[in-house]
Amino acid sequence: MTHDSKLLGLLNLNEKVLSHAALSHAENPLELFSAVAWSHLTEPGDGFAGFVREALGGTEALALLVAGSTEASWLARIQDSGGADAAEVSFGNVAATLQDSLARWTQRLSLNKVLKSLDDAVSIGAHLIAPQDANWPCQLSALKNAAPALLWLRGDPKALRSSELSWAVVGCRTPTSYGQEATSHIVQGLADAGVTIVSGGAFGIDAIAHHSALLCQTPTIAVMAGGVDRLYPKSNEFLLSKIISEGAVVSEVPLATAPTKWRFLQRNRIIAALAGGTVIVEAGYRSGAINTANHAAALERPVAAVPGSIFSSRSAGCHRLIAEDRAQMVESAADLLAIFPGKFLVDQPIFEFMAPLETRTFDSIGFGAPTIDQICRDAGLTLSEATQAIGSLLLKGKVLQRGAGYQRA
Question: Which class in CATH covers the domain with range 158-339?
Fold first, then answer.
């Protein structure tokens, strides 16, 4: 494929770099290289970085950054892309957000680090999975601007495709014998239904969920808070190595990245987005598992919790979720499958940018089938505005007409 020589020059690249073994599988190695670079430049969940990649394209945004383009140039390109209004809605003062973002990103610019990570990926057999890859899990698009630029993966890339039929099983790191038994029981039932198990590879419930999935020979995916070359926690190295051989270990952060509290919390959004639903088996009143449940709820994914002893602090978080009607109480895999079978009805993602009116209309449609009058009322649009937006969304394949109503495709 012929690459844009101007972009290559701005990025200080050549065809030899783009023929690197870690990039060779990509239809467009330049796009994949850009995704790798963005994973180095940003911390997980950087919504403004996600916005500029979507609005301008990852490669062009990277070229602007490498070229040291002025803030005025960035703002002009955002305006030209048609994304200025959406940026203002999402980020408020776009100029200030851009200024802060450029300061963060620029200090991480390092071609040598990116090239070293490509070499290291080859040496440990890691795969680079970008949104254009056939194995990219389309359900991550629910994260919108906060979706990762790239997934670093060790194991079988096709395991990601199995996540279209999945449940996340998470919980505390010091489970009781009851929690261990409940986790194994639930995972076995889900495995019998052919459901993939997603978790965080941590001590306790996470480890038991992965181990049970391996015993049941159902696919399992561990999402890391650090680089996939740093299997963490160290004492779970054997388990994580087993997952690599039979499933997949993934992360959005580059190789050699250390896990931190922030990255653990952001890792949880990937778990929640990757899985069809999230079930909590034993969790303290405040815990990482509750954080994962919150992410799942924000994504409008099913959340379930297993009840425990009223005398156990390890079940306090589960009881809280149930009492606040933020999770459905479950006792078995059958209960989970009755709530939601874990199957995503996903199509290949459409990467074109949605204009503000389209976004407001699409959001108001939600997961129902509202009429155009309901859409106008919910989105605060005129009939003319809603009609125009719906027409565009129909052409893009984002929505379908069902009688007098409209629903997401």
Answer: alpha beta
